[in-house]
Amino acid sequence: MRSSPGFRPQLLKPQAKTRYRLASGSALLSDNRTQFLFVVLFFWTILFNSSAFPEQASATSEKAVPQNSASGSKQAATSATSADPGTRIAFEDLVEKSTIKFRLKNSISPQRYSIETMLGGVALFDYNNDGLLDIFLTNGADIPSLEKNDLSFWNRLYRNNGDGTFSDVTEQAGVKGIGYSMGVAAGDYDNDGFVDLYIAGVNHNQLLHNNGNGSFTDVTDKAGVGGAIPGYGKPWAVAAGWFDYNNDGHLDLLVIDYLDYNIANCKLCEIDRVRTYCSPSNFKGTPNILFKNNGNGTFTDVSASSHIAQYVGKGMGVAFADYDNDGFTDIFVSNDTSPNFLLHNNGDGTFKDVSLEKGVAYTANGSLVAGMGADFRDLNNDGLPDIFHTAMFGDTFPIYKNSGSQFDDVTAISEITAFSRRMTAWGTGAFDLDNDGNKDLFTAGGAILDNEAEVLHRPTLIPNGLLRNNGNFKFADVSSSAGAAFVEPRAHRGAAFGDINNDGRIDIIVSTLNDKPQLLLNRTTSNGHWIILNLVGTKDNRDGLGTRIKITTSNGIQFNQATTAVGYSSSSDKRVHFGLGKASLIDKIELSWPTGVRQVLTNLKTDQVLTIVEGSSFPVGLK
Q1: Cα–Cα distances in Å, from 417 out to 46, 307, 410, 488?
Q2: Which of 231-235, 292-296, 317-321, 566-570 is predicted with the least confidence, judged by mean pLDDT?
Q3: Which of 356, 376, 114, 335 is nearest to 243 (CA)?
Q4: Based on C-alpha coordinates, what's the Rg of the chain?
Q5: pLDDT in tens, 439-457
Q6: How far apart are CA 479 and CA 485, in angstroms?
Q7: What is the DSSP letter of 565?
Q8: Does the predicted model carry a pTM greater than 0.90?
Q9: CA distance 168 to 170
Q10: 3-class SS at 116?
Q11: Where are the beta strands (DSSP E) in 19-127?
Q12: Under a CB-based contact definition with an 8 Å cutoff, are residues 256 and 238 in contact?
């Protein structure tokens, strides 16, 4: 049955009655009829489930009966024989050896405030310019004060020592944070060569300027990016991202706000008389904020004049790409229980939401899904960025193929429907994890409710997922063979991607509620070659964010772009990675910088980190 856009059937009460009868084994039903009705009800539930939080009764309403579910294990999305058996993707969790002691603390309360299940942003960035990726992890705060009243709530910065271990430099760096933190965005907003941090949170947002000497300074008020909105106060922000929307060479800031929510007077919810986190359908959304970089250390809120403010959703994921190759970076926002946004950059300082006409507001059957983490990259190397985002149990994780004139929902064709309907995931990313030239998909699994097993009889803890790209939009679920971290169920949240040890293989760090993170080192044994491009803008923004890159080798043509906004509440390495397969030489690298500068490099060696300075004909390689 097809639901019309915006229509969300309320199934809890009739479902409760029917499932009670099935569970009690009514004598009026034969075994065959019971099985038949169970199957019908299961698919009925799957079809109409479209919220990042399960629908709940309020604290005073009638009880809701849980949905049934398969176990946390996952079937292969395609036959395992479609993957090359010689290049099994594999990861090893080295967090214990790394000496990272961080635990993500959400201060779970008897009231089950919605903020408690949403935190967990993580960043991979090189804060001290030593060529090694460092780790930043956001953290919660005390409830109900929403302040970091002891060091267990500090955000944490870990310096990469280059030997597989990390040192906690939080205090000396001055980045312990304030308030109940959620997301993080890394970018060099003042073009001084040192990457800065923006922290999105429930009651405080922070801009931390990197001083270049190992320390950061809070310049939020000076820069004018506190994130308050007239009529809303300080909204609950979950994510942020850096991009140059007007191509002036300075990074601008987009802040993603979620719900109009205040724990002092918020609604409380329950299922079957058990307190749970409320569905976002119980709350109004809030506008996102666009800050224009003035180039002097300050920003101007241009949310109204850019039209960003007129699009009110319940944002969770943000990703940037120039989807129509007109030279201006566009925005995709995955929304929760409301249509996604595809904000086309008009090139005149304004944006227009074209999600409905372009086919990414809803799924192919007109349904809403609970949009969560997102990535906006070319998955089939045709030069057109595609969209992938995660969602919750009962939804699918949509894949929208960019056909040039519009986007087509190819989720079913990609053969990931069975994989994605039976899990909830947050962080995600599209990266070539086995260096074969195709971008694979990672999903960070974790239920919404911390008592989901009790009230809904489906797993609370969920393993990470890994979908190998076999080409032509066909993906295979290879999670079960990727290592223990893809079998162990957890309450995963944010994920960041980058080559932590500079060996040419993309690694992943994943946050986990009330637990240590997973530091997943890529151990894939592959003969595939690679290149990592470290861009240095001169006329453009220093990080080169928004630069479109085309690489030509004997293995074919590939496309990617420089961005740090990936997944859910997180920020990945600004360097751009390409797996090159069997190609041992790069014939040509073509760069299109945001300001319009075109740069071509030829006959380059593979298997190196290559620094490319805008306008220079002499890239510098690091083996």
Answers
A1: 11, 35, 10, 22
A2: 231-235
A3: 376
A4: 23
A5: 999 999 999 999 999 999 9
A6: 9
A7: B
A8: no
A9: 6
A10: helix
A11: 57-58, 91-93, 122-125
A12: yes
